[in-house]
Amino acid sequence: METEHKKLDYSLKTAEERAQFVEDLMPTLTKDQLKSKKYMEILADYIVSAMTPEEKKEKLILTDNRMITVNKRETSFQKLVDKFENGEDGL
């Protein structure tokens, strides 16, 4: 069974226009398309790519790559304390 994919309209230049396009597209999608992480990621990228840098900063978009960076930089007090031995005080 061949799934028909509606082409995304790249003539739309703003994120708001693209978001409206995707919203109108959602009712036409199949259950498989709605369950597909990759397909949803394509739709999200379609909207995000039209956002201005200011909008991207304002929305704090957390992509997979961004989460890797955040997770590398974030650390908890408990993780720091666990690294010390014999009751050492690292603070």
Account of the protein in words:
- The protein is built from six helices and no strands.
- Helix content is 56%, strand content 0%.
- It has one domain.
- Helix 1 (15-25) packs antiparallel against helix 3 (37-48).
Task: Kindly report the oligomeric state of this protein.
Answer: single chain
Low-confidence stretches: none
Order of helices and strands: HHHHHH
Number of helices: 6
Q: Main β-sheet: number of strands, strand sense, barrel status?
A: none
- Given the helix and strand composition, which structural class is it? mainly alpha
Mean pLDDT: 77
Rg, rounded, reads 21 Å
How many domains comprise the coordinates? 1
Roughly what percent helix?
55-70%
Per the principal axes of the C-alpha atoms, what is the gross shape? elongated
Query: What is the number of E strands?
Result: 0
Q: What distance separates the N and C termini?
A: 62 Å
Note the beta-strand portion: under 5%
SSE order and pairing:
Layout (H helix, E strand, L loop, with lengths): L14 H11 L5 H5 L1 H12 L4 H7 L4 H10 L3 H6 L9
Helix pairs in contact: 1-3
Question: What are the salient characteristics of this protein?
Answer:
mainly alpha, elongated, 56% helix, 91 residues, 6 helices
Give a summary of the structure in a few sentences.
The protein is mostly helical. Helix content is 56%, strand content 0%.
